[in-house]
Amino acid sequence: MQFIDEAKIYIKSGNGGAGCMSFRREANIPKGGPDGGNGGRGASVIVESVGNLNTLIDFRFQQHYTAKNGRHGMGSNRNGAAAEDIIVKVPVGTQIFLEDKETLLIDITRVGQRMVIAKGGDGGLGNANFKSSTNQAPTKTTPGWSGEELTVWLHLKLLSDVGLVGLPNAGKSTFLSVVSRAKPKIADYPFTTLKPQLGVAYVDEREFVIADIPGLIEGASDGVGLGDRFLKHVERCGVMLHLVDGIDDDFIENYRVIRGELEKYSEKLAFKKEIVALNKCDSLPQDEIEMKKEMLEEACGQKVYTLSGVTGEGKGEVLRVLLGEVLAFRGCESSELSD
Fold first, then answer.
1. Which of 95, 179, 268, 314 is the most buried (most CB within 10 A)?
2. Class of the 1-156 domain?
């Protein structure tokens, strides 16, 4: 299925039905009182998150959601029927913005979360509502209220525990294929991955979700290359695994490029927990591995792990470190929700 993470849709809720003007007329009651019923409520448009969707591809084919109007009121004090609400189903992780792309309406983070995006108009009043001691035969009614009309943007941010970041061809897809059952496209050239890939990693009878984010390049935060479209997916991750290509002579600069783009994109990414790993160590002699590891540790100011996505060497240690960070992040999230 094609991965679509942004969509623009038009939404209109239903108008309320008009109130009815009617008088009771029967054989023995030639001048009965007013009995006009009220109009029914127009349908609302409701957004609901479901667990079986992982892309916004459906909105590529249906971009207009127009709800039905409420039925008009009728005589004999019969109220019009309310129209049935429209449910727009979206994946968990969807953010809904107004047309300006800045005003956030809702950030959907769990299955079953719902929000009324456009409320249906209330029904009008029939003339029976206006009867009084001084006006026994009112002819006044009110029309139904108009529904709401707006255009919104849907932005999907993948919900994953770990985000894989690094320059193109850093070995992210290979690592994901080794530690999970995901089958991303792998080749020896940059930009093999053109859309985010998700995989479930298993370690010590626990599991967590890893997202392979398409390769970033210098200027990604400003819209260069593919990175600006997918940096947002890293924001929801509990921890980042930054893979650095160990066989590239400019590995220190490569690390700094990615750090710079993360920091420029958002303050949230700048301070997100990061695990750094020197990748492709199967192609390096041991003394060179140690030298590059020390250089990279000095550049990033933290411990650097060594691994090989091809042979799987070092993956166990890295996965356990990631698991610890993921569990700590989940604990923080739980405490925030309970507060």
1. 179
2. mainly beta
Closest CA to 55 of 180, 155, 183: 155
Which residues, other chains included, contact 287 with Cβ-Cβ below 8 Å and sequence gap of 6+? none
What is the pLDDT, as a whole number, of residue 218? 53
Other Cβ atoms within 10 Å of 213 Cβ, number? 26
For the chain, domain boundaries: 1-156, 162-338
**254-303 pLDDT, tens digit each:** 999 888 888 888 788 888 899 999 999 999 999 999 999 999 999 999 99
Q: What is this structure's pTM?
A: 0.67
Q: What is the DSSP letter of 159?
A: -
CATH number assigned to the domain with residue range 162-338, chosen from the 4 options 1.10.10.10, 3.40.50.300, 3.60.10.10, 3.30.210.10: 3.40.50.300
Q: Which of 75, 137, 86, 156 is nearest to 114 (CA)?
A: 86
For 60-76, the DSSP string reads HH--EEEPPPPPPPBTT
Percentage of the chain with pLDDT > 90? 52
